[in-house]
UniProtKB/TrEMBL annotation, chain A:
InterPro entries: Beta-grasp_dom_sf, Mopterin_synth/thiamin_S_b, Sulfur_Carrier/Prot_Modifier, ThiS/MoaD-like. It comes from the Bacteria. This is Molybdopterin converting factor, small subunit. Gene3D superfamilies: 3.10.20.30.
Automatic annotation (TrEMBL), chain B:
This is Peptidase. Coiled coil: none annotated. The keyword Zinc applies. One of its GO terms (molecular function) is metalloexopeptidase activity. The lineage of its organism: Bacteria, Bacillati, Actinomycetota, Actinomycetes, Micromonosporales. PANTHER family: CYSO-CYSTEINE PEPTIDASE. It comes from Micromonospora sediminimaris. One of its GO terms (biological process) is proteolysis.
C-alpha cells in the first residue's frame, strides 16, 4: 500500500492534472522527496529554502494539520491520506508587514515547528 | 464577471458588518464548473484581526472536504477590509491560491455604504471584474450592480480598469 496525496488545483500542473497521486515515505519530508522524483518542482512549492513547510500551504495527514504533528518530520504509515490545501489568508496588512512576515518565515527553524501567526 | 444572488451578497455584507472592526472571511460554494455561487459558508477568522484574516486550518479542511463530497468548488472566496478600500493588498495577492475563484472584497470602512468588488488573482496578477447582482426573488431578469460603495443603480457596470 502507498500513501494517497490529494493535490489542490493550483499544483496540478506538476501532476499532469491529477487530483490524487500516490507516494511513499516514513515522514512527510520523505514523501515530498519521493513525489518530487516523479513530479519535479512540487516539493519546492511546499517547502522553503530553509527546509520549513511553506506559509502558503496547509498539509494534513488524515484529519490532522501536520503543523501539530512535527511538520516535515510528521510520521507517515501506509494507507495514510495526505491532503494539501493552499492556505486561505490575507488582509489589509501592508506591503512592509507582508515582507517582514516573509522574512520571519525564511528565518524559521529548519524543523518547521514554528508557525507564524499574525496578530 | 461575477454573477451572484442578492441574498448571498446581503449575507456576506451582514457577516462583514457583524465582525467589524475585525476582518470577516468565507466562501460561497457552487457546483463544479458552473461558475455559480450557491451556498454561503461564513468562516471563522482564526487571526481575529483588524488587518489580517486566515481560515482556521481544521475548518478549512472540513469545508473543502464537504465541497468535494457534494461536487462543489469554492466559486467565491471573500473577506472584508475594515478601514481601507476593497482592493487586494499585497498580502492578499501573495496568498491567493485558488486560481478558479472570484476573490470578493467588501469594505466596511463607511458605516452606511458597502464597497463590493470582485477580482481574479492568478499568478500574482490581479484583474478586476464586474459584479452582477441577481435579484432572483423579484425578477430573474432584473439586474442591479454595486459600484464603489454606492447604492445599486445601474443595469451593468464597467470595472474601474485599474
Amino acid at each position: 500500500m502507498a500513501i494517497e496525496v490529494r493535490i489542490p488545483t493550483i499544483l496540478r500542473s506538476y501532476t499532469g492534472g491529477a487530483k490524487v497521486v500516490e507516494g511513499s515515505g516514513d515522514t512527510l519530508n520523505d514523501l515530498l522527496t519521493d513525489l518530487d522524483s516523479r513530479h519535479a518542482g512540487l516539493r519546492g512549492r511546499l517547502v522553503t529554502e530553509a527546509d520549513a513547510l511553506h506559509r502558503f500551504v496547509n498539509v494534513y495527514v488524515n484529519d490532522e494539520d501536520v503543523r501539530f504533528l512535527g511538520a516535515l518530520d510528521a510520521k507517515l504509515n501506509d494507507g495514510d491520506s495526505v491532503t494539501i490545501l493552499p492556505a486561505v489568508a490575507g488582509g489589509a496588512f501592508g506591503f512592509a508587514a507582508a515582507a517582514a512576515m516573509a522574512q520571519h518565515v525564511a528565518a524559521a527553524p529548519a524543523d518547521g515547528r514554528t508557525r507564524v501567526t499574525a496578530s | 464577471m461575477l454573477s451572484i444572488d442578492r441574498s448571498i451578497v446581503d449575507a456576506i455584507v451582514a457577516h462583514a458588518r457583524r465582525d467589524h472592526p475585525d476582518e470577516a472571511c468565507g466562501v460561497v460554494a457552487g457546483p463544479v464548473g458552473s461558475d455559480t455561487p450557491t451556498r454561503h459558508i461564513p468562516m471563522e477568522n482564526a487571526a481575529r484581526s483588524m488587518t489580517f484574516y486566515e481560515f482556521d486550518s481544521m475548518e478549512h479542511l472540513r469545508v473543502w472536504r464537504e465541497m468535494d463530497d457534494r461536487d462543489e468548488e469554492p466559486v467565491v472566496i471573500y473577506h472584508s477590509h475594515t478601514a481601507t478600500e476593497a482592493y487586494p493588498s499585497r498580502t492578499d495577492i501573495s496568498f491567493a491560491g485558488e486560481p478558479g475563484a472570484h476573490y470578493l472584497l467588501v469594505s466596511t470602512r463607511e458605516p452606511d455604504t458597502e464597497e463590493i468588488r470582485s477580482f481574479r488573482i492568478v499568478d500574482g496578477v490581479v484583474t478586476e471584474e464586474p459584479v452582477r447582482i441577481l435579484d432572483a426573488g423579484v425578477d430573474p431578469h432584473a439586474v442591479q450592480s454595486y459600484m464603489f460603495g454606492q447604492s445599486p443603480a445601474t443595469v451593468d457596470y464597467e470595472c474601474s480598469g485599474r
